[in-house]
C-alpha cells in the first residue's frame, strides 16, 4: 500500500503554487503536473507561474503519493467537509458513480475523497463477481504440447520440434477464466494495489489478488473497450468494467522516473450541475409535467459546410406550455447576469416557442423575475419572461433535490403574461 504524504484540498478556480508548505506543491509534483499538461493542455487546470490554477472541473488528482482534491463551491461560507459530501451526493444522484449494482451495505468505509469511493466501488463489484462465480470463455491457444490436441501447425512444428519429436506445435480451443474481461479487471486491481492509501482497503485488495485467476498482462488503450460485448452471462461485469475503464484510461504513469504517476478523475461542474438539476426535476415533477434534457434544434444551415445547432439544458412541458431552463454553475456578480447569457436565453425563448425561460444558479433561495423588451411595433404579446432562479444548496441530497424542485415548479406555476 502506498503511503499518502498529504491530502491537499482546494476549491475550483483556486491556484496552487510551488513551495514547502502543506498547502503547496513540491518541485517534483509541479513538474509532474506540467508534464501531464503538456503542449496540448488538459481541461481541468492551467499552468501559471510556479504553479497551476484549477478550472471548473472538480474531483481528484493523485500525483505520486500526493492527493489533490478539487471541490466545488457556490458560496464562501461552507467548509470542505460539506462540499466534499455534496460532490459525492451529486455524483451518486446523477449515476456518474456506477452504483446501480452495488448496494450501500457493500460499501464499508467512509470515503476520504472521491478516489477512495471509486476504489471501493470497484473492489465491491469484483468481490461480488467472485461470490457469484467468474464466467469462463473460449479462447484460442497456440504452443508446444506433449499431446496432439487441436490442429497441428506444420510450419511452426517443423521449426520448433525438428529434434523433439515427442512434442506437437498445435492450436486448440480452451475454455477457462483467462479472457479479456478478467484481464482488464486484473490490471485495474494492480493499479489499486499501487495507488491505494486507505488502510481499510489494503487487505481487501490483497485478498482479491489471491483469489483472482492468473492473467497475462495487458496494455490498456481506449479502443480496447470497443471490442467488448456483454451477453446474459457477462452482464454483471458491466459496472466493474466501466469503473476499471475510468481508472485505467485516466492513469498516466511517470515513465521517466516512475515516482510521480498521475491519476486524474475530474468532472466538469457545469455538466454535473445541469445533470443534477435535471434528475431532481424529473424525480419530483408534478403530474402532467414532462422534463427533457438537451433538446437539439438546427438554427443555421449553410449552402455548404456544417450546420449549427442550439441545445438548451432543460425543457419543461405541460399542457402545451414550454419552459426553458439554462443552468449555470456560477454566481452572478453584483451587476447581474452577463449579457451573453441573457441573449442566449432570449434565443431559446423565441426559437422554442417558450412562454418563459430562466437562468438557474446554485446558492441562495430566491427568484428574480424579469422580462425581455417587446419587439418594436408588436406589443406586449412579444414579451418573454426571463428570470433568474437561485436554487438552495441543501445538506442532505434528498432534501436538496426536493428544495430545487419546489423552487422551480413554484416559479413555473406563475403566469408569464405581464397583463394577467
From TrEMBL:
Domain of life where this protein originates: Bacteria
Protein name as catalogued: Restriction endonuclease
InterPro entries: McrC, PDDEXK-like_dom_sf
Amino acid at each position: 500500500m502506498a503511503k499518502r504524504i498529504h491530502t491537499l484540498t482546494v476549491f475550483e478556480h483556486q491556484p496552487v503554487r510551488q513551495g514547502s508548505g502543506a498547502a503547496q506543491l513540491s518541485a517534483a509534483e509541479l513538474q509532474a503536473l506540467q508534464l501531464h499538461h503538456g503542449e496540448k493542455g488538459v481541461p481541468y487546470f492551467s499552468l501559471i507561474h510556479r504553479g497551476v490554477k484549477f478550472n471548473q472541473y472538480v474531483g481528484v488528482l493523485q500525483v505520486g503519493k500526493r492527493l489533490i482534491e478539487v471541490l466545488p463551491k457556490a458560496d464562501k461560507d461552507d467548509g470542505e467537509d460539506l462540499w466534499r459530501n455534496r460532490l459525492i451526493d451529486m455524483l451518486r444522484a446523477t449515476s456518474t458513480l456506477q452504483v446501480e449494482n452495488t448496494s450501500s451495505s457493500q460499501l464499508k468505509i467512509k470515503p476520504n475523497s472521491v478516489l477512495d469511493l471509486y476504489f471501493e466501488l470497484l473492489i465491491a463489484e469484483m468481490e461480488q463477481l467472485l461470490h457469484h462465480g467468474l464466467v469462463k470463455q473460449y479462447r484460442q491457444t497456440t504452443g508446444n504440447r506433449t499431446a496432439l490436441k487441436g490442429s497441428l501447425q506444420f510450419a511452426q512444428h517443423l521449426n520448433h520440434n525438428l529434434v523433439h519429436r515427442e512434442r506437437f506445435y498445435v492450436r486448440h480451443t480452451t475454455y477457462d477464466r483467462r479472457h479479456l474481461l478478467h484481464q482488464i479487471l486484473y490490471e485495474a486491481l494492480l493499479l489499486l494495489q499501487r495507488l491505494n492509501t486507505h488502510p481499510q482497503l489494503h487487505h481487501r485488495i490483497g485478498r482479491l489478488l489471491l483469489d483472482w485467476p492468473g492473467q497475462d498482462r495487458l496494455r490498456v488503450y481506449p479502443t480496447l473497450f470497443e471490442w467488448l460485448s456483454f451477453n446474459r452471462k457477462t452482464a454483471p461485469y458491466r459496472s466493474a468494467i466501466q469503473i476499471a475503464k475510468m481508472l485505467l484510461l485516466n492513469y498516466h504513469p511517470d515513465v521517466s522516473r516512475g515516482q510521480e504517476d498521475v491519476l486524474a478523475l475530474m468532472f466538469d461542474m457545469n455538466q454535473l450541475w445541469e445533470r443534477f438539476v435535471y434528475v431532481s426535476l424529473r424525480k419530483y415533477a408534478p403530474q402532467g409535467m414532462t422534463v427533457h434534457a438537451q433538446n437539439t434544434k438546427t438554427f443555421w444551415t449553410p449552402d455548404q459546410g456544417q450546420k449549427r445547432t442550439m441545445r438548451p439544458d432543460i425543457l419543461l412541458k405541460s399542457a402545451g406550455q414550454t419552459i426553458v431552463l439554462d443552468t449555470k454553475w456560477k454566481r452572478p456578480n453584483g451587476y447581474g447576469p452577463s449579457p451573453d447569457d441573457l441573449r442566449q436565453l432570449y434565443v431559446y425563448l423565441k426559437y422554442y416557442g417558450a412562454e418563459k425561460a430562466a437562468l438557474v444558479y446554485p446558492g441562495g433561495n430566491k427568484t428574480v423575475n424579469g422580462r425581455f423588451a417587446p419587439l418594436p411595433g408588436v406589443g406586449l404579446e412579444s414579451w418573454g419572461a426571463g428570470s433568474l432562479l437561485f436554487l438552495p444548496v441543501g445538506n442532505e441530497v434528498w432534501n436538496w433535490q426536493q428544495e430545487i424542485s419546489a423552487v422551480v415548479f413554484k416559479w413555473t406555476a406563475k403566469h408569464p403574461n405581464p397583463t394577467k
